[in-house]
Amino acid sequence: MNLKDCYNFSDFRKLAKKKLPAPIFHYIDGGSDDEVTLNRNTNAFNDCDLVPNVLASVGKPDLSTTIFGRKIDMPLFLSPTAMQSLYTPEGDKASARAAEKFGTMYSMSTMASFSIEEIADISNGPKLFQLYVHKDQSITDDLIDRCKAANFDGLCLTVDTLVAGNRERDHRTGFTTPPKLTLESLLSFAMRPEWVFKYLTNKKFELANIKNKTDKGTNIAKSVIDYINEQYDPAMNWKDAEYCVKRWNGPFALKGVMSVDDAKRAIDIGCTAIMISNHGGRQLDGSRSPFDQVKAISDAVGDKLEIILDGGVRRGTHVLKALAAGATACSFGKMFLFSLGAGGQAGVERLLQSMHDEINRNMVLMGCKNLSELNNNKIIYRK
C-alpha cells in the first residue's frame, strides 16, 4: 500500500499503522478509558441527514470563510497537535507548508517539535497557536509574547486538559516524549527500520517552544500523561483565561468548550471564537461529542463569535453537517496526523486535496453556492 492508494480516513490510518512504531501509532489512534467518546465523535454525524435543493445553478461554489481575522479557502483546517516530528522528521514544517498551499490554517501546539519562530520563517499562511496555562506563568507569558512577535493570527487556550485523561493505550505501549528505545519497546521499533533511521539521523527530538524553560519532554523522557500532570495548572480558572485574552489582545478562542454556559462566559471575557472540542475523546470519556453540542451553542451565541467544531471529522459531508448546524468552520487532528505519518507533507497535501474535493462536490450536490446557504433548513435530525 502506498500514498496513492489513500482516499479516506481508513486508508491513511492503515498506511500510518504500517509505517509508525506501535507506541506512536496508538498515541494518535487512542482515546481515554473505554474510548466511547472517541467513537461517538464521528458516529454523531450519522444521527442527521442533509437535505439538498436541486436546479440551483451552483456552478463553482465559494468555499471560503473567515476565522481569527484571516480568510481561508475552505472551512476546514489543521487542529493543533503535539510532537509532529514523531510522525515525519519535518513535522510541523510539513503541516504548515501543506496548509499554506491549500489556503487554510495551520495550528501549532505548545508541545510542537519546531519553534514558533521556525514556523513563522517558513510559512506566510494563516497560523493559530494553541496555549496551555503552565504552573510557571513565565512560560505562558513567553509563549504569548513570542506569538505576537512572530505575527501569528490567533491564539486558542486549551481548557479541557487540566489533568491528563486515562489513555490506557499509552500505559500499555510505554509511550514517552522523547521516545525511549528500551528492551520492552525495541521489537516494535525494530519492525519499523525506516522510521528508526529517520529518527536517529534527523534533528534531535525536542519540545522546541519550551526547551529553554524545562528539560522535561526534551532531554528527560516523560510519559505524556506525567508531563501534563506536572507542567499544566489544574487550578486554572476564568481569571487565568481572561488574563491570556488581554495579554494577547487579538483573535482568541477557548478550545474545549462544550456547554452553552461556558460559551456565554467566553464572550464575557473577550473571546472572539470557541472551539467545541473534547480533545478528540482523549480526556473525559462519556462526554458529549462536539457535533452533539454545536446546534445548541450556535442557537445561543452563534451571532456573537466564531464557532469551530473540532473532533470526529472524517468526510466532507461531516463538514457540511457541522456548518448547517451552526459552525463557522471545522478542524481535525487524528485524520491529518495519520496522513502526516503515511506520507509527510505529501500525505497532508493529498488529504487536504481530497477533503477540498469532497466539500466542493457535496456543495454542488446540496445546491449551495456559498457556505452561508448551509443553514438549519439543510439538515434534519433523526431523533
Structural features, described:
- The chain has 383 residues and is an alpha/beta fold.
- The protein has one domain: TIM Barrel, CATH 3.20.20.70.
- 43% of the residues lie in helices and 13% in strands.
- The protein has 15 helices and 12 strands.
- It has helices at residues 9-19, 22-29, 36-43, 91-101, 116-122, 137-149, 168-173, 183-190, 193-201, 224-231, 238-248, 260-268, 290-301, 316-325, 334-366, and strands at 48-50, 65-67, 70-72, 76-78, 106-109, 127-131, 154-158, 252-257, 273-276, 306-310, 329-332, 379-381.
- The strands form 3 sheets. The chain has an 8-stranded parallel β-sheet. Strands 1-12 form a two-stranded antiparallel ribbon.
- α4 packs parallel to α15.
- The protein is globular and about 60 Å long.
- The termini are far apart.
